[in-house]
Amino acid sequence: MKRDFLAVTDFSKSEISETFEIAKKLKADVKAQRPHHYFAGESMAMIFAKPSTRTRISFETGMFQFGGHALYLGPNDIGIGKREAVKDIARVVSRYNNWIMARLFEHKHILELAEYATVPVINGLTDYNHPCQIMADMLTITEHHGQVEGQKIVFIGDGNNVCNSFLNFASVVPYHFVLAAPEGYDPDPTTLERARKAGLSEIEIVRDPIEAVKNADVLYTDVWTSMGQEDERNKRLTDFAKFQINNELLSYAKSDALVMHCLPAHYGEEITDEVLNGPNSVVFDEAENRMHAQKAIQVMLAKSMGKEIDI
Ligand code: CP
Ligand code: NVA
Fold first, then answer.
1. Radius of gyration of the chain measured on its C-alpha atoms
2. Residue 1's Cα: distance from chain center in Å?
């Protein structure tokens, strides 16, 4: 049976811990220039319906480091769900490639892709979630603060796809998650309810960013206008005006609070230049960790499908 990674909740708590341990080993190998060709001769089809810097480069480079190859299929190449049915693309691509990674608009399309593909499908972001991002973020938090459990992580901004993945993580690993968002920008209600019902993590939604960040271990933000929402940009600039991470807001958090952003950043909107490039920022560690975390996810999927990998 093939296994996919479409949401953080596809992994158990112990699998998440194992993923982080594997990611750290893979990262050490890369730093020491030790080759690890665990997927020699394998190929990954990367289907992008939206633009990308980190996701494309990290998966493509990761496959190269594994001794394999990745194909970039951009928004004008496949036209998923438009030029060709999702279920047909899933079956065709599975005949050529060992892996599929996809960044799509509609979440139901990645579910369909996974249903019909006969090879593992990894979610590189949909309108609903961004699980690889959160795995990289939580890996970064463990590197800097030792662990995620017990951390107070405050997400300031839109209850968007990245926020939904924080909630999914909270369904599996206990921590304190606070969303500081204006009315009307709450996360997916089903995801919020599931995370609360899991009963593991403390989860709050507050309207005052200053109250939210008091005693925070991590301040996290993302763009106010996600890909596909460009028509709402002006309204969002007004609605989120009080939700910027700047030095004043940072001063209310713990002095060693990490500042995180999945990138791309819109300087002067959700975050200031001085904070993103200031002493608390771990934004570029986070970007680097996309690659190590995703490679570890691949190793986890392959191992659980019976491949022997000595790591
Ligand atoms: N954070 C992230 O997913 O970046 P890209 O959109 O550039 O891939
Ligand atoms: N929420 C953002 C994340 C980009 C990595 C978007 O969907 O555009």
1. 19
2. 25
For the Cβ of 160 lying below 6 angstroms from any atom of ligand 2, the answer is yes
Which tens digits make up the pLDDT trace of 49-69? 999 999 999 999 999 999 999
pTM over 0.85, yes/no: yes
pLDDT value of residue 278: 98
Q: Is residue 222 part of a domain?
A: yes
Which positions of the chain have pLDDT values less than 70? none
Measured by CA distance, the residue closest to atom 6 of ligand 1 is 52
Same domain, 102 and 159: no
Does a structural domain hold residue 192?
yes
Q: Tell me the three state secondary structure of residue 179.
A: strand
What local confidence, expressed as pLDDT, does residue 214 receive? 98
- The residues, ordered by sequence, that sit 6+ positions from 250 with a Cβ below 8 Å of its Cβ are 213, 219, 257, 259, 275, 278, 280
Distance from Cα 88 to the centre of ligand 1, integer Å = 27
Q: Whose CA is nearest to atom 2 of ligand 2?
A: 226
Dist CA 155 CA 205 (whole Å): 10
In a domain, 3, yes or no: no
Q: What is the pLDDT of residues 153-195, one digit of tens each?
A: 999 999 999 999 999 999 999 999 999 999 999 999 999 999 9
Query: φ and ψ at 307, to 5 degrees?
Result: -75, 135
pLDDT recorded at residue 85: 94
| 309 in any annotated domain | no
- Where in the sequence numbering do the catalytic residues fall? 262
Q: How far is the CA of 223 from the centre of ligand 2 (A)?
A: 7
Q: From ligand 2's centre to the CA of 226, what distance in Å?
A: 5
Q: Whose CA is nearest to atom 6 of ligand 2?
A: 226
Testing ligand 1's pocket by substitution, the residue of 59, 290, 291, 294 carrying the most ligand atoms inside 8 A of its CB is 290
Q: Are residues 99 and 138 in the same domain?
A: no
Distance 295 CA to ligand 1 centre (A): 16
* Total number of domains in the chain: 2
Domain containing 253: what range?
Answer: 133-283
